[in-house]
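Troubleshooting: if your tokenizer reports a length mismatch, compare your output against this known-good record of 91 residues.
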Amino acid sequence: MDVVTDSNFIITGSQGQWHNAGRERGLAMSDAIAKPAESAPRTISVPEAGRWLGLGRNAAYEAARRGEIPVLRFGKRIRVSVVALERMLAR
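Known-good structure output:
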């Protein structure tokens, strides 16, 4: 029997019957489907990228400002693509 769970929904059996544990909280089935289960993050913070590179927090932000760390900007938020960082490290 296959069992897939998240915090609100459980799928069981070969027919994929849904047990809706999130109904009392007003959650829809699409809320469970839209979230990838236990996947690694696609972006990380600049300080986390700095730790991958052996840099401190301030040095990581300086490297990002200079373009040495590939960043994505979302308003005031700055994130680092894990794929881009891995490619950079592979060179």
